[in-house]
Specification:
mainly alpha, 10 helices
Length: 272
Amino acid sequence: MIAGERGAGTAILILTALAEAGVHSIYSPRNLKQVFHPDHRLLPVTLAFCACFVELVCIIGLFHTFTAVITGSFVMLFVNMVDRPSYLPVNITVITAYLFMSFVWYALISWLKGRNAVSLRGLFTLEATLVAAFMLFAGLSEPLPGPAAIQTLVSVCLATSAMSLQAAIMTEVLSIHGPTTFMTGKTNRLVAGLFDGWFGGRETFKTHEQARKTAISTGATMAAFAAGGFVGSIAMKLLGFWALSVPFVILLTVALSQTGEHEGTTEARVSR
């Protein structure tokens, strides 16, 4: 309990510092509305950092559970069938929650598109809220009793809800950037961009310059994903689940930076 209180106190300090920095940036002349504009390449970079940060917290704190990569969840399910049967409840829960919540998010976004009311501010605020709920519930329940405990399963559902929402946003609203919660497709795109941009020989991209830009932006997203994992693993060891205060503040800043001026990344107008 003492460790949890210390972690919560440290998280509050981090939260306050990041919030002050975020408020200062929002009210500065060239504010984060430009940096986190839906067309800007730094938006997927930032989201990739947050995604891997949350994923590392889940892997370390939720009994090796993947909440953003359904492939990893299936692999761990079959591994644990043979190696650690006691972990099966958490594996089954994360797969079920991911499929169910993905259906919910796609239905919600489709409904919003049909009414020309897609709001990136609202969607990112919802994701930040889910991350905060995950942090509070898991942090106050720490240490989690085991992979089949109700505290663990609820934490898994909250984390999976947040990560599946980000995946749905990137697929249905910001598809111009590609996925930010897994890097398999990004790796292939990076290699294609490097090959066509600097070595030529194919016509995957319209021009060599376009290929190079794709390689650079894809590489930046992958690097941010790796950085999120590195920082997340260290923060989890130091602060426990309260480390999630970092992606929470970042996602909330991204949400508050959205405006109603963008129309280009989705068939429906992205509104405030």
